[in-house]
Amino acid sequence: YQAKEGGGNVAAYDSSRDDASTDQLALLAELREALATDDQLVLALQPAVDLATGAPTGVEALIRWQHPRRGWLGPTDFIRPVENSEQLGAFTRYVLDKALGVAAEWSRAGIDVPISVNLSARSLLDPRLPGEIGDALRRHQLPPHRLVLEITETVVMSELEVIDEVLATLRAMGVQLAVDDFGTGFSSLTFLTRIAVDELKVDRSFVIRMADSPEAAAIVRTTVGLAHELGLRVVAEGVETAEQRTALAELGCTAAQGYHFFKPMPADKIGAVLGSLLDTAQGNVFPLRADG
Ligand code: C2E
Ligand code: MG
Ligand code: MG
Ligand code: MG
């Protein structure tokens, strides 16, 4: 904060901003490399479970980047610049292909559990997306209902016709749609009348505050009731404790996901975990704690 020379300060400010955008450009160039070499981007997989039976209701794919220089990066470290770049299409296709590849593996083992993939709002602006998803499903020989696309309310809120059309096409193909982080958008609930969805995911922030905030508990209860009334599935996100799990069950929530059940795990572990969850559920004995 040496404010001696105004001009110098402006220059310093500008150059730090340049550094930030230079770094983003570097990151995007590195992503191009990672997509091409196919050895840095990996999916972590996190099951959601039925609270009554313990059966897996789905598995969410969460992207990770094992960067050769920057170390392990999570989606929040790089998704934003990717979303605003020309590489979004390639990135989205890459994630979908990897996720469907994993699901095809467990499907071949006779496990019919759907895979959920998070989509950036902007990828829904591309009218080629449904066709690409159809191709990918055929390539991996998976029925469309085995794929769930997680979209956030902000997406659905934008009321862009092209997004509605892309989503309607996907739904007509038989692909399932879930509203992620439900309750955190600034939208009214009207989007649920505009776009048919299959699942609502109660945002983690409400699950965390449920115990000491009557408002948060009311939001969870209302979301569960809304889902029930509309015939949609409902999944609580970010469940970390047995208390939260019990409270959710008491509020009528039927499925949940979170560290209390499973942390996101590598692809080579997921098949065995799903298999043993299904075995246990068939015996109807729910493991008190399936994972740390
Ligand atoms: P999300 O879809 O709401 O995913 C849930 C996030 O919460 C994940 O973080 C997950 O690892 C984390 N989580 C799960 N259970 C718990 C828990 O019990 N406690 C806590 N504290 N956290 C839990 P992650 O993997 O860092 O992903 C963050 C967000 O990045 C995701 O939020 C999703 O919106 C986005 N994202 C992840 N993968 C992709 C992707 O492949 N493409 C796009 N476009 N976005 C992605
Ligand atoms: Mg999600
Ligand atoms: Mg979420
Ligand atoms: Mg969330």
Automatic annotation (TrEMBL):
Keywords: Membrane, Transmembrane, Transmembrane helix
Any coiled-coil regions, as ranges: none
Sequence ranges assigned to domain EAL in this UniProt record: 24-278
Protein name: Bifunctional diguanylate cyclase/phosphodiesterase
Native source species: Micromonospora mangrovi
